[in-house]
Amino acid sequence: MNTAIGCPYHKVSESFKPFDLTNPFPFYKQAREEEPIFFSEELGYYVVTRFQDIKEIFGNWKVFTSENAQSPFKPIAPKAKALMEEGGLIGLSGLSGRIPPDHTRIRRIVSMAFNVGRFRKLEPKIRELAINMIEDFAAKGKTNIIKDLAYDLPAYVIFMLLGVPNEEVQQVKSWAESRLLLTWGDLSEDDQLMHAQNMVKYWNYCQGLVAKRKENPTDDLPGDLVRYQAEGYEISDREIAAMCYSALFAGHETTTSLLGNGIRELLIHRKSWESLCTNHEMIPNAVEEVLRYSPSIVSWRRRSTEEATVGGITIPAGSNILLVMGSGNRDEAQFENGEDFDIERKNANQHLSMGSGIHFCLGAPLAKLEAKVVLEELTKRLPSLRLTPEQTFAFAQNTSFRAPVALEVEWDV
Q1: Which of 37, 43, 138, 241 has minimal Cβ neighbours within 10 Å of its Cβ?
Q2: pTM of the model
Q3: Mean of per-residue pLDDT scores for the chain
Q4: Which family does it belong to (predicted)?
């Protein structure tokens, strides 16, 4: 059926709970089968659930702009909006919300500093961090592995890249959580104001990182970008600060989620965990399968710049679009037995969890490296690791970022 103009309301959308990510996958399957593109009255977005449709939209940045990627789902309350405007936060984006030519210019410069070579140099430090954190709780026989490993390790890694001192990690991470909730959550006006205040502090901190590098050059991402700027590359102080603002959030929040989701799925699917304990060569593909099956980011956004037809559905110009990668990743048309978790899947790396097209995630190699190192050390040191029985898994209320808030595990000492 073609839903050419207006805001259609389909039966599938009645079951759509965009802010509840506890277990959205049965609904995703229903949507793919019954109404793969539907309109959500609650969000005011067209929701796209099939792999090929999502990939098509990701690949056409001219018709489907990313300029709304960082826009809050819910209208910002006047007081919170005024506070953010005064703090210079309106219209702020690193790369995900930019389009060419600015996107092309900035990404080319950032790629010179934020690259695989720099990530590989970090591997010994990542491994040292992982070993130290695991040894801190190894003798206890049980732990909340989100709190004692997955929460902090990615933060320390990305903050090493950006030159953030260890003693400031917890503060910056709390500001980043405010960004997640204000942009992708469903908050009251009072909560919006509180998180807006934190985001202004977060933005001021990132501007300070740039200012400090101008006074004292450093070997880190903002230091490199300030140096490139001095050498004549076209990138402003605000753009450098925006990259820090974006990287400090994206570089640890999503990797924390990858570790939490990965450990949980591997322990639920016990044979997969045992396979990794005996064969570390399987770990890289297992990481890809975790990203496919239980992605850190289940959905992302675009806006149509003109009327367009996708999957037989006409989407009017100016429409907001929610791309549900968490659904596309399980599409049977792309992944055989897509609802099954299979760490030996041949095409696991074809998932959409890191995006596609010109906005493919720059930090993907770093996130995968961190997950690989953590799984290598966990399977080596705690092969009897298992989920503590009878626990309930909670997931933060938002549209896009999915990971267990806590993950209680135990092992033989």
Answers
A1: 138
A2: 0.88
A3: 90
A4: Belongs to the cytochrome P450 family.
